[in-house]
Amino acid sequence: MASAMASFKDDPDYLGPISATPQKMVEEMLAVAGVTAADVVFDLGCNDGRVLVTAAANAGARGVGVEIDENAVKKARTKAAEAGVEHLVEIRHGNACAVDDLAVATVCFAYLLPKGNAKLSEKLMRSMAPGSRVVTYVFRLPKEHWDEHLETCKAVASTRDRGGGGGVDTSGFNKIFVYRVPETRPEWCES
Ligand SMILES: C[S@@+](CC[C@H](N)C(=O)[O-])C[C@H]1O[C@@H](n2cnc3c(N)ncnc32)[C@H](O)[C@@H]1O
User: Which residues contact 188 (CB under 8 A, 6 or more apart)?
Assistant: First the structure.
């Protein structure tokens, strides 16, 4: 699997490395996006599924995670079962670039490299329903496509204290971006 992932890094559909949003930021993100039991949350590249498991356990939201890495898929399914939310959370093993039912998402979360966000940018705008939200962590969506539709950018300072007091202020990059899909799709996305 390790070598399969290594070669996948050169694939145009490679969206980002295995990493996970810190739990504190998962909770911030769900609060900033106002996720409730009425939501269907997608996480494109869901790794261990923590965003969806937290959304289901804390808010009762339904979730769909798509993940290319088989081990991560297993972890996510286990995590959902352990939290008792497997009836709310579906974890798919596959390529997020090929997802064809984003229209049912009311919130789509993505913690991906800038090239991953760029790869999915048009698909998100074309496929998601007007009024639905896209939430990204650390990296924003391409400015030329999405800045007009940015509702919130929240920077969160780290509470990590390395012993000497004060800790490290990570608010320069520790950011949550919440966008809303407009009622009328922009011209660039009709072509
Ligand atoms: C930075 S991690 C984010 C994990 C999770 N969303 C979170 O916030 O905790 C990016 C994930 O995307 C996955 N990934 C990369 N390219 C993918 C693709 N084309 N389809 C599905 N998953 C992909 C990686 O395996 C990795 O688990």
Answer: 144, 145
